[in-house]
Design a protein that fits this description.
Strand content: 5-15%
Number of helices: 16
Mean pLDDT: 90
Number of strands: 12
Number of domains: 2
Shape: globular
Strand order of the largest sheet: 8-7-6-5-4-3-2-9
Length: about 375
């Protein structure tokens, strides 16, 4: 699979200076962690799940979570588990290329039980999403994952969700973060990425952000994100990929604040795209994706297919970013130094900017590098085709 692989070759060639690279479910974990991109969630109760997965794969989705937790009622869990076994069996029989598939469970025992019940179809499963993760609650999930991996003979990844009240509350945050760090470090080879449960954070205080506000406008939430990245997202080799929070889209009868999308990138024919994005309250999503990146997050949890294209368009490395990263990583500059950007608009300081450059090049491997004259607008327009 590859990002933007659903586009025709000629279209990709017109968009990319360096096209996105291919990867598989067996690719190295650092590659997959970045390649997750927009991870689309779907309730495990959907009777058309196999058909939906094929449909979303054709539209450019490369990672999905099939949920047995908050998205379904308590009384529906057993039926959802049976449904997942049926749907995976159907997918295995079809034999087509599929996204990376994860199951969000409620209890550790579900991990070993589902792997056993899936049988040969379990080869399609990339791992499990672990809810409300703390050291105390999370270790049994990780132990069950290790047992299931040993029994099934196939690599399985964990994606813990950081969403517990202990993490949000100031008086317990440091202790909780320290415990989480111990737990995920112990199982580092199995932890693909950490996910942020911002909806649960807001719930603890009866909050819900409007579509013209980002998670970073909610100061309680922004403070938790900053502390999670501080402890768990370091670039010194001890950190993990941390995904951006879910975007909750819901229509408003009227907009209270002015649109956040500037007109200039959408000049000319793209003005119609700008208008459509504003009408569907997607300008807030675009801004939040940019703020995710600025705050050290990669990819995003998505609950609607229309969110996938914006996440992927803004994950593509710009030609300017690529040029800067290449310059910073030149072997002859290992000793440090400062040089002017080839775009003549900034300073590239080799030692302080090296970690940024290395992350940028990893992103370029899976999302590609845009042509010099291609902006996210063209990438977004291409990705929105048929969505």
């Amino acid at each position: 699979m590859r990002h933007f692989g659903h586009l025709a070759s000629a279209v990709r060639n017109g968009l990319f200076h360096r096209e996105p690279g291919e990867f598989t479910a067996d690719s190295p974990a650092p590659t997959l962690a970045v390649a997750l991109g927009a991870t689309l969630y779907s309730p495990g109760t959907r009777l058309t799940l196999a058909r939906d997965i094929h449909k979303q794969a054709r539209r450019g989705v490369v990672s999905m979570v099939l949920c047995l937790e908050d998205s379904i009622g308590d009384a529906d869990v057993a039926g959802a588990e049976e449904n997942l076994v049926r749907q995976f069996t159907e997918l295995a029989a079809a034999g087509d290329d599929l996204p990376l598939l994860f199951v969000r469970v409620r209890e550790p025992a579900q991990i070993t039980d589902l792997v056993r019940r899936l049988g040969p179809a379990g080869r399609l499963l990339s791992g499990f999403v672990l809810p409300k993760f703390t050291e105390e609650r999370g270790l049994p999930f990780l132990e069950a994952l290790a047992d299931a991996e040993a029994d099934g003979g196939r690599r399985l990844f964990a994606m813990p969700v950081l969403e517990s009240p202990e993490l949000l509350h100031l008086e317990t945050r440091t202790e909780t973060l320290t415990g989480i760090a111990r737990a995920v470090d112990k199982y580092r080879d199995r932890v693909l990425a950490l996910r942020l449960g911002v909806t649960d954070f807001c719930s603890a205080y009866g909050l819900r952000r409007a579509p013209d506000m980002t998670a970073y406008d909610v100061k309680l939430v922004a403070s938790v994100i900053a502390d999670v990245v501080n402890v768990l997202g370091r670039a010194d080799g001890s950190g993990f990929t941390i995904s951006g929070p879910v975007w909750e889209y819901f229509p408003q009868p009227e907009r209270m604040f002015k649109p956040q999308l500037r007109r200039s990138p959408f000049a000319g024919p793209a003005e119609a795209l700008r208008t459509a994005l504003i009408e569907h309250d997607m300008d807030g999503l675009l801004r939040e994706i940019q703020l995710d990146r600025a705050n050290g997050l990669q990819g995003k949890t998505c609950i609607h297919p229309s969110h996938v294209a914006p996440v992927h368009a803004l994950s593509v490395v710009s030609h300017e970013e690529f040029s800067d990263a290449q310059d910073i990583l030149r072997p002859e500059l290992d000793g440090g130094g400062v040089l002017r950007s080839a775009y003549t608009n900034k300073m590239n300081e080799v030692k302080p900017h090296r970690a940024w450059a290395e992350r940028t090049m990893r992103r370029a491997e899976v999302f590609g590098v845009a042509r010099e004259d291609v902006s996210f607008v063209e990438l977004l327009a291409a990705g929105l085709q048929d969505v």
